[in-house]
Write a structure and sequence with these properties.
Layout (H helix, E strand, L loop, with lengths): L7 E5 L4 H12 L3 E6 L2 H13 L4 E5 L5 H15 L4 E4 L14 H29 L2 E6 L12 H20 L5 E8 L5 H9 L3 H8 L12 H8 L10 E4 L7
Parallel strand pairs: 1-2, 1-4, 2-3, 4-5, 5-6, 6-7
Helix pairs in contact: 1-8, 3-4, 4-5
């Protein structure tokens, strides 16, 4: 029930970090994975690396905050692969400032990257999945949709929006046999969180002290949840928000 052979998966922001960790898991389970990102060279390199390991992988360049580029991305996907079974909305970014120091431009940039891109890609994917008889949508939220952080107001707001949007489409598209779920990563060792450790004194020590697993996560830790939520094993699971955080959110 975890076999994804013959399935086609699109992963936005899939050329590094959590996105690549999830894409790798999907590819290992047999899916053809398309890595989408603004950095065409980085995406092509990541796809080539997966192919050298015997995985089925492609790359497409797109700015997922742009409605026209999103439409073009899905058009290319259909021309090249003919179907879409799995969508992972992972593209994201942040600005680390207290809320009173945020500019409107910074607010809009993070909202567009994290939340609007999720809407645009889900909307585009819906018709394709409905036509083929169903599909799986995995939206990447954050544990900061549960907690507040003084330096992550816009990030937390955007990810809270992702979780609520996921619940809405889960109810709206259930008749189309589309399951939509959110994943809430905890402290995962990526380029994004390395920046946080540099900017937030004592963060590393506090994370280790609070995490029952006693370590930071790595991108590969997200591979299993991606396979579960993309496979028939989760056909009766929809509208959930699942933490993958080594126990951080329960301690």
């Amino acid at each position: 029930m975890f076999d994804l052979t013959g399935k086609v998966a699109l992963v936005t922001g899939g050329n590094g970090g959590i996105g690549l960790g999830m894409a790798t898991g999907l590819a290992q389970a047999g899916a053809t994975v398309i890595l989408a990102g603004r950095n065409a060279e980085k995406s092509a390199d990541a796809a080539a690396d997966l192919r050298t390991k015997g995985r089925l992988c492609d790359a497409v360049e797109a700015d997922v905050t742009d409605e026209h580029e999103v439409a073009g991305m899905f058009q290319k996907l259909m021309v090249r692969h003919g179907r879409l079974d799995i969508l992972v909305n992972n593209a994201g970014g942040t600005v680390r400032k207290p809320p009173h120091e945020l500019s409107l431009e910074e607010w809009n940039s993070v909202m567009d990257t994290n939340l609007t891109s999720t809407f645009l890609c889900c909307r585009a994917a819906h018709a394709l999945m409905k036509e083929s008889g169903g599909g799986k949508i995995i939206n990447i939220g954050s544990m900061l949709s549960i907690f507040g952080a003084p330096y992550a107001a816009v990030y937390g707001a955007s990810k809270g929006g992702v979780v609520q949007f996921t619940r809405s489409i889960a109810t709206a598209w259930a008749p189309d046999k589309i399951q939509a779920n959110a994943v809430l990563p905890g402290w995962i060792d990526t380029d994004l969180t390395r920046g946080a450790r540099e900017q937030v004194p004592g963060l590393n020590e506090r994370v280790l002290a609070r995490t029952p697993a006693g370590r930071w996560g790595v991108p590969a830790d997200l591979g299993g949840i991606a396979v579960f939520l993309a496979s028939s094993a989760s056909d009766f699971v929809t509208g959930t928000a699942i933490p993958v955080d080594g126990g951080y959110s329960i301690s």
